[in-house]
Design brief:
By secondary structure, the protein is α+β, with helices and mostly antiparallel strands. The chain is built from three helices and six strands. The chain is globular and about 45 Å long. The relative contact order is 0.23.
């Protein structure tokens, strides 16, 4: 496993992960943008519309999972520069309904650097309230990041 080295700079890896996020076909369904804040830290800004609502007039839980998982996943993958990680488990807690508007998902690496990594994330609504929280476990896959077109073209 290769970890980002401060002397060589992790910026190219971080920009390549941001590009990988935006190149994923599923992200065409969401008005969202990933920003790697630093090693082990991410922020996703996204907009919730009524298209994501369930029958009772608030965003369906898939929005919570998608954004919490992505924020935690990419926070963990900042520490692994050679392999794509896979989510092996994710626990989430809903604390407030998500309605129309801008929402932020913040991810933070917690532990592990070898085979399994743990990261947590939280959702913050446009009023500054926490609306959800999650913790994920991520495992190194056999998929080389350099083999993924969205990553490869931006890794520097």
């Amino acid at each position: 496993m290769t970890l980002p080295d401060a002397s060589s700079g992790a910026a190219p890896h971080h920009r390549a992960l941001e590009s990988l996020y935006s190149s994923a076909p599923v992200n065409a369904l969401f008005d969202s943008q990933l920003k790697i804040v630093g090693e082990g830290q991410t922020r996703i800004e996204f907009v919730v519309t009524e298209a994501a609502y369930h029958a009772a007039g608030a965003a369906h839980g898939t929005i919570y999972f998608k954004m919490l998982d992505d924020a935690a996943f990419y926070a963990a993958n900042t520490l692994v520069t050679d392999r794509f990680l896979l989510t092996t488990s994710f626990n989430l807690h809903f604390t407030k309904p998500v309605r129309v508007g801008k929402v932020f998902a913040e991810g933070r690496w917690v532990s592990g650097k070898r085979r399994v990594l743990v990261a947590e994330s939280r959702l913050i609504d446009f009023e500054g309230d926490e609306i959800g929280r999650g913790t994920g476990t991520f495992m190194r896959s056999r998929i080389a990041l350099s083999s993924l077109p969205g990553y490869r073209s931006n890794a520097g």
